[in-house]
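note to self — DONT lose this again. spent like an hour looking for the file last time. sequence + predicted structure for the chain T wanted, 324 res
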Amino acid sequence: MRLALLALFLPAICLAQTAGQPRLSLDPRSYDFGRIAPAQPVTHAFKASNSGSAPLTITKVNPSCGCTSSVVGQRTLAPGESTLLEVTFNPAGYRGMARKSVQVLSNDPLEPDQAITFDVEVLPAVLPSTEQVLFTDLVPKDRRKASVKLETENGQPILVTHADLSPAPWLGVVTRPEGKDQWVDFDLLAHRLPANKLSGLDTVILHVSNPEPSDIKLTVRWERRAPVVATPDKVAWAETAGQDLRAALVLKDRQNHPFRILSARTSNPLLTVTGIRPGAAVTQQVQVLLSAKAKPGVYDERAFLTLDTPGHPEFEIRVAASLR
């Protein structure tokens, strides 16, 4: 009998507990702004409603970052009332896909902490076909050319006012129009590259005035052909810890010019290079040694050999080990 009475009154008790409570409903909970330009702030109004039976108070609205701001039309809502929650995203400094959120706090006893989210893709007004130009395996007689195309999403004409290039007498940069698009042509003279460097990175800043003022950064990476090559080109072990590990390394000059190894250093004191001879030769052989003191684990190290070869003062050897 008591169980029957409890079953009869339980729904009424539950209704009494939920009666007279505010309820926050957000519509929509998420929104996609799509693609926008970096100088194009966007705003969307989310609908906030009180679907409960008691006054609802929105106590706080917290954007997830300083790039987002929000304005609430009305913070206290009677049952059945609605207001707008305007969210603005400023894309300055952003690029690519982004997902942001806004935390909405209220006196809703069931969900006092709710969130609305939005997605956006920030694309610059001018899109380069690539942001990095790569010239590899360069020898002194080489003259290499490469081009980057600049386009817009909406087909507006592009106007490049000028280009700033980091000091690089080996690199020429010219812009030329093609209809509404622009091309950036690079001309590299390998014989002008720094004699003591095997690789380098140069930066070009393009100043665009149309379709909107903006700067586009392009990088040019160049790599000279190394006069000395190693066999093998890297050292790798997968062994049991507690034993000395050795690997022979043969260095050879591509042009058969004699050279010397002046010194060696490593990224780990457990790693050494032995067998360095004082004389010059077209081919040099050394040993890379990993000490038996190395504990189990994964190692990613480097050995550096100082050479007297013009244009190749230091030779880098990658050494990897997996010890169990």
